[in-house]
Write a structure and sequence with these properties.
The complex is a heterodimer of chains A (about 110) and B (about 110). Chain A is built from no helices and 11 strands. Chain A has about 110 residues and is mainly β. In chain A, the strands form 2 sheets. In chain A, strands 2, 4, 5, 9, 10 and 11 form a 6-stranded mixed β-sheet that branches. Chain B has about 110 residues and is mostly beta strands. Chain B is globular and about 35 Å long. The chains are: A mainly beta (about 110), B mainly beta (about 110). Chains A and B meet through strand 5 and strand 10 of A and strand 4, strand 5, strand 9 and strand 10 of B.
Chain lengths: ~110, ~110
């Protein structure tokens, strides 16, 4: 069975600082990995995804993530935080695009201070 | 706006009751997914439909059922409601199985 662990339910950064949100996964087959963002009172929006190919994936709003198979990780980063980045971020794994059902982590709330 | 619509936005009901949540996928999307988000369980996949047929089941209780209609909209039926069923229920859709999923704004269910 697949699973996702997100380290830290809350991460606080200052505006302009590096954002690093950690995600580790467990999967019995090569995984497909996703990061979603959820703003207050809204649904989830896909930030980026890794399926195959290049392990460094660039997404929207300046975010990127690197798939590291040896570390079973898919950490999300952004060089410089903006106030508008404050939201909850979810890492998710799918074992097969054929069925594409997602298993989500518990989420990490990103707090950005001026 | 993802293009996925869900109604109602909020629903308050009593224990033991039955409710129906509705989802309209994006135009052209054939696959619909239902997820439940609660404080203790997080985001969990419930069930997936593709072009009217059930394709995958997750942690969906027997008291819950869903269907996808010929016009591709979907309904999630929750019966014999318990306090623990209070949660945010999301619908997502994709063009076909394996494509990016677009999430609706959710229906917040409160069981009192």
């Amino acid at each position: 069975a697949q699973s996702v662990t997100q380290l830290g339910s809350h991460v606080s950064v200052s505006e302009g600082a590096l954002v690093l949100l950690r995600c580790n996964y467990s999967s019995s087959v090569p995984p497909y990995l996703f990061w979603y963002v959820q703003y207050p009172n809204q649904g989830l929006q896909l930030l980026l995804k890794y399926t195959t190919g290049a392990t460094l994936v660039k997404g929207i709003n300046g975010f990127e993530a690197e798939f590291k198979k040896s570390e079973t990780s898919f950490h999300l980063t952004k060089p410089s935080a903006h106030m508008s980045d404050a939201a909850e971020y979810f890492c998710a794994v799918s074992e097969s695009l054929r069925y594409s059902t997602l298993t989500f982590g518990k989420g990490t709330m990103l707090l950005v201070s001026p | 706006d993802s293009g996925v619509t869900q109604t109602p936005k909020h629903l308050i009901t009593a224990t033991g009751q039955r409710v129906t949540l509705r989802c309209s996928p994006r135009s052209g999307d054939l696959s619909v997914y239902w997820y439940q988000q609660s404080l203790d369980q997080g985001l969990q996949f419930l069930i997936q439909y593709y072009n009217g047929e059930e394709r995958a089941k997750g942690n969906i209780l027997e008291r819950f059922s869903a269907q996808q209609f010929p016009d591709l909209h979907s309904e999630l039926n929750l019966s014999s409601l318990e306090l623990g069923d209070s949660a945010l229920y999301f619908c997502a859709s994709s063009v076909t199985i394996g494509d990016e999923q677009y999430f609706g704004p959710g229906t917040r269910l409160t069981v009192t």
